[in-house]
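MODEL INPUT / OUTPUT PAIR
PAIR INDEX: 1
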Amino acid sequence: MSVETETDKDLILEEFLPYKLAILSHTVSGLVARVYDKSFGLTIPEWRVIAIVGRFPGLSAVEVAERTMMDKVAVSRAVTKLIKRGRIEREFADADRRRSILNLSEEGRQVHDEVAPLALQMEDDLLHGLTEDEVATLNTVIERLLARARFISAP
């Protein structure tokens, strides 16, 4: 009788945690994106920019990228589109003219205030089959996995 080692394991994609998380993220993002796109003409990156700037007014695009873990290019494209559509306003910092400051416009605030409840409802629908304890455990596990992933990926 031999002991199975880590190298003896077969990779079964459907049971591989990163794969499962990617599928879950893709599926949920797709559901939410349909609501954003259909009702407001927003992409997922655009909604994320609106959501984070709505919560933290005055962020720079770099800070938006850091807080959302989005690629800087994706943030830049989303910000450019949102400015063109009048949903985000950009000012330049007095101390450093290279640093732009982002805020929601009046229209951007309206979009935020209409989309946020829909996003929260989608979250409620997704978690509907779980008990309060299961939701708390899920959140704890997600936070621990995120902390571990950040630790592993740290230089």
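PAIR INDEX: 2
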Amino acid sequence: MLNRPKDVTVTRAEVEDFIFQQAEFIDARDYESWLSLFTDDGTYWIPATPHDSDPEMQLSFMYDDLPTMVARCERLLAFGTAGQQPITRSSHVVGNVRLGEPDSNGDIVVHSRFHVTQFRRDVLKTYVGGFTHHLVTTDEGFKIRRQRVDLIDCDGLHDTILQIYL
């Protein structure tokens, strides 16, 4: 059940712990737990240009709904996935977590900054930018309705295709 009672107080520390846990799930390749953090209508978006506002009308590196996230995670975990042999390892550093104003749905809006390093085939790749999470409260705790990942170099040249989540 998704709801956000008007009298619920949310602290930065609570949402910060939630976002840190999300990053830990990705680094541990625990995609089942990571997927459980999203609502049934959850989306994950990485725009390809700064200030994009409509993932359905503008080019994106990634714009996944929950069924697409499930399929991508299954491919990432499948031993026979050639694109992930050897597997990509990642390490997240997330900081500058700030609570924003609730959105028009009453969702909790959280802004943060990230530095993600990925290692695969003796190559380190770094991604830097900002996260915007739209969270809802449930009986189980926070859930992600929308996550936006803004890369600082989104409109630059990229020599690899993003295959794993940041």
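PAIR 2 NOTE: Residues 12-27 form the longest helix (16 residues).
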